[in-house]
């Protein structure tokens, strides 16, 4: 092997090793996640980050299958796109997970009913994104979970319909078009 080729190979190996070791599945209080950064679930099933669907120039926050990034399963800001790539995800003072735009306006919030002092958000391999207190890291004591907020995709473990505990109805709504995840048609609602 010639020297330049060897160096390129080493470089690629370093990049992939470095990339793997830095891809975290959690965001802790005090941290933020910029456009271009990602969370990856431990089993490498799902990724969470910023994207532009189809031919759109808008930026959305979302979750997709790692092996198939075009298969987006969740978009929290589907009706409030970011117009540039200066948005970021972080925690508010109350421990809410918030998506913030360049002028520091909150575009989307997990809207918790109680304050969480030391929040940790973790992307699970099921496609759930859960928020809990740092002190209850290994419990299922979620203060918020994205499974309560479906977009247009039902994953195993998610439930639809009215829920007394969370106080609202979960339903699936289609995207307006492949370039726009705006909630368009209600296409799955549980009959009462
Ligand atoms: C939880 O809090 C401890 C003490 O503040 C800190 O060392 C640790 O990194 C935190 N863990 C996470 C996942 O944020
Ligand atoms: C951020 O959001 C606020 C409120 O929606 C809006 O008024 C402002 O123009 C946005 N800023 C940018 C840079 O998009
Ligand atoms: C936030 O939660 C409160 C109740 O906990 C609810 O009344 C309000 O509509 C929610 N806001 C959003 C934007 O979902």
Automatic annotation (TrEMBL):
Highest taxon above the source species: Eukaryota
Keywords annotated in UniProt: Disulfide bond, Glycoprotein, Signal
InterPro entries for this protein: Bulb-type_lectin_dom (IPR001480), Bulb-type_lectin_dom_sf (IPR036426)
Keyword Transport: no
Pfam entry (one): B_lectin
Annotated CDD domains: B_lectin
Domain Bulb-type lectin: residue ranges: 24-144
Identification of the protein by name: Bulb-type lectin domain-containing protein
Taxonomic lineage of the native organism: Eukaryota, Viridiplantae, Streptophyta, Embryophyta, Tracheophyta
